[in-house]
Amino acid sequence: MARRLLCDLTHLGVPVGSELLDTISPQYLNDLISWGAIGARTTESQLHRELASGVSFPIGFKNGTDGSVTVAVDAMRSSSNPHAFMGVTEQGIASIVKTRGNQDVHVILRGGTKGPNFAAEHVNAAADAIAKARPQVHPSIMIDCSRAYSAAPGTAFCTAMLRWRKRQMATRKRTTTINRKSSTTSVRNCVPDTRTSLV
Q1: 12-36 burial, b for 16+ CB within 10 Å, e for fewer?
Q2: What is the pLDDT of residues 57-98, one digit of tens each?
Q3: Of the four, 67, 92, 170, 184, which is 20 to 30 A from 45 by CA?
């Protein structure tokens, strides 16, 4: 039933996002998901990092429950490399799964026990940590507007994000020319996974 729903949504052109809680079911839904997340408590899980290295869609790793981005950055670096691990085929047969690595990974700032981490200084610190760990790739960051942010007034969050965005745009205008016509939106179709192979 879940797969039927995802198929229907995909045929409507609606991209599907999902948090990958276990490591088995995503292998059956991989072709229908456009974006995935690994939760704060499973970002350190080697099994989830291996899974993320083989899926054919972008994956976001949430920062740790304490608010630290170190585990998420480590997960990005790990899952962007090839892995080999135990898995199952589409027929449910045990096999060795080999992956090529997933370069479409990013950090999700979701706050933590110390409070929200959506302020400019938190975003800049996360970007610096990503750039240091993966200097060949532009830092990618997403901000989770729920979870630890639920206690923060919405207006304060929006105001903080708008201020940060204006500062970023002002900096970008000073250093580069912005091509406003280059932004396009695409919907991922139902395509087979190209990053994994079964042995």
Answers
A1: eeeebebebeebeebbebbbbbbbb
A2: 999 999 999 999 999 999 999 999 999 998 877 788 888 989
A3: 92
Number of structural domains the chain divides into: 1
d(Cα 115, Cα 133) in Å, to the nearest integer? 25
Range of the domain at 43: 2-176+188-198
State yes or no: pLDDT of 45 exceeds 70: yes
Residue of 152, 149, 181 whose CA lies nearest to 62: 149
Domain membership of residue 182 (yes or no) is no
**Residue 149 placed within a domain:** yes
Domain membership flag for residue 13: yes
Q: Which two tokens stand for residue 192?
A: 């087979």
Spatial distance between the Cα atoms of 144 and 62, rounded to a whole number of angstroms: 9
| 196 sits in which H/E element | strand 196-198
pLDDT, residue 173, reads 62
Q: What is the pLDDT of residue 197?
A: 43
Residue 141 sits in a domain whose CATH number is 3.20.20.70
183 belongs to a structural domain: no
Distance, in Å, from the CA atom of 15 to the CA atom of 140, rounded to the nearest integer, reads 19
Instruction: Label residue 42 exposed, middle or buried (CB < 10 Å: 0-12, 13-18, 19+).
Output: buried
Can you name the residues that pair with 106 across neighbouring β-strands? 60
Could you write out the DSSP letters of every residue in 10-75? HHTT---EEE--SSSTHHHHGGG-SEEEE-TTTTT-HHHHHHHTT-SS-EEEEPPTTS-SHHHHHH
